Amino acid sequence: MFMFYLPDGIPLEANGLRRESQFLDARPGADIIAAHVIGEDVEMARAFASRGDLVEKKVTFERLTDEAYAYSAEGDPTSGVIIGDDAVMVIDTRSTPVAAQDLIDRVRKVTTKPIKYVVLTHYHAVRVLGAAAYKAEHIIASEDTYDLIKERGAQDFKSETERFPRLFQAVESIPGLTWPTLTFRGFMRIWLGKLEVQLMQVGRGHTKGDTIVWLPKQKVLFSGDLVERGAAPYTGDAYLREWPKTLDNLRALKPRMLIPGRGDACKTPRETEAAIAGTQDFLRVLVQGVQSGVKRKQALKQIFSSTRGKMLPKFGQWAIFEHCMPFDVSRCYDELTGHDDPRIWTAKRDREMWNALAD
Ligand SMILES: [Zn+2]
Q1: I need a labelling partner for 161 at 20 to 30 A (CA). Which of 49, 106, 123, 192 fits?
Q2: Where in the chain is the domain with CATH 3.60.15.10?
Q3: What spacing in Å lies between the alpha carbon of 138 and ligand 1's midpoint?
Q4: In angstroms, rounded to a whole number, what is the distance separating the alpha carbons of residues 175 and 136?
Q5: What is the rounded CA–CA span in Å between residue 229 and residue 276?
Q6: Per CATH, which fold does 60-228+259-276 belong to?
Q7: Ligand 1 midpoint to CA 164 (Å)
Q8: Rounded Cα gap, residues 215 and 222, in angstroms
Q9: If you measure from the C-alpha of residue 236 to the centroid of ligand 1, how many angstroms do you get, rounded to a whole number?
């Protein structure tokens, strides 16, 4: 049986609120299934959709070229691995050092070369907090990502831990925030022996600091969450006006293969284009939906419900769709109503937003 713990560590069952079966339907509008205790009062809250997602995912570790590998897990955050002549680079670390160990074990089955570099495509906790496990010489991120870790890394850690309990099962193994040891602005070239690896910022999108990793000779692209495959893009910290153009910039590289932020690797130019176009399509329908509500001066809750309804037929089957929608609509609404930069998500703001959008 899954035991849900309240934010203050009290098992849900101890409060007489044992309703774990309802975790299967945890989108806004579902029954009350969580609570947190404030003094003598029990404040009801609705669990985040991802809290109902408790089944372990099957991992695929795939060789794409002699140098590039993808570590994916059915819509969970995907990591990339590049094996050079003398060293290994890992792109996005997984959520905890314990989770990262599985990736390390799989790398060790194909090479004994040292893992010298860890690259963070952006600051989100689910993909950076496993970094300590690699004991890499360098942890590389864009300066914009460094700034975001400094500004909101601690809040993001707390908020993502509550959003994704399955991914943070071994949260106690995280020694603290992951701090880059090397930062760059715009472009950086790294040589793994004779293998050229390029780190680039080609525009803002999923976050302010998005970094892609590009193997120019092999034409293999590691996109981070700028591109998703079969999973909903999370846009809670996004620059939605700029994201479609950034995707055009990725397309202009003419990648042969693409390792997305979530989902399996795209192994042909056709699959790659489909993932980029699918992400663009999702963003277009999202922005159109929210925009039409804002024009009619509708309340956020109404806009959420109509936008979700419009997106459901096409995107409802994508991984984490229900989890993303409230955050995506909230950020899109903010951007269209004068918040150029994403507001910081705290665990408290997460809960307030989720409750406001539920009935
Ligand atoms: Zn992300």
Answers
A1: 106
A2: 60-228+259-276
A3: 21
A4: 15
A5: 8
A6: Metallo-beta-lactamase; Chain A (3.60.15)
A7: 13
A8: 9
A9: 9
The CA 268 to ligand 1 mean position distance, Å, reads: 24
Distance CA 22, CA 12 (A): 13
78: left (phi > 0), else alpha (psi -120 to 50), else beta? beta
Read off the pLDDT of residues 35-78 as tens digits, 9 standing for 90 and up.
Answer: 333 333 334 345 677 776 778 899 999 999 999 999 999 999 99
| pLDDT band at residue 175 using 50, 70 and 90 as cut-offs | very high
Retrieve residue 107's tokens.
Answer: 């790398």
Rounded to 10°, the helix 321-336/347-357 angle is 100
Instruction: State how beta strands 138-142 and 115-119 pair.
Output: parallel
* pLDDT tens per residue, range 272-320: 999 999 999 999 999 999 999 999 999 999 999 999 999 999 999 999 9
pTM of the model: 0.87
3-state secondary structure of 337: coil
Residue with tokens 């809250």: 45
User: How far is 305 from 286, CA to CA, in rounded Å?
Assistant: 12
CB atoms within 10 A of CB 288: 14
Question: Rounded to the nearest whole angstrom, what is the distance from the C-alpha of residue 37 to the centroid of ligand 1?
Answer: 30
The residue among 324, 183, 177, 178 whose CA lies nearest residue 261 is 324
- Do the Cβ atoms of 107 and 118 come closer than 8 Å? no
Strands 115-119 vs 88-91: parallel, antiparallel or unpaired? parallel
Nearest 5 degrees, angle CA 14-CA 17-CA 22? 130
Contact (Cβ atoms closer than 8 angstroms) between residue 189 and residue 198: yes
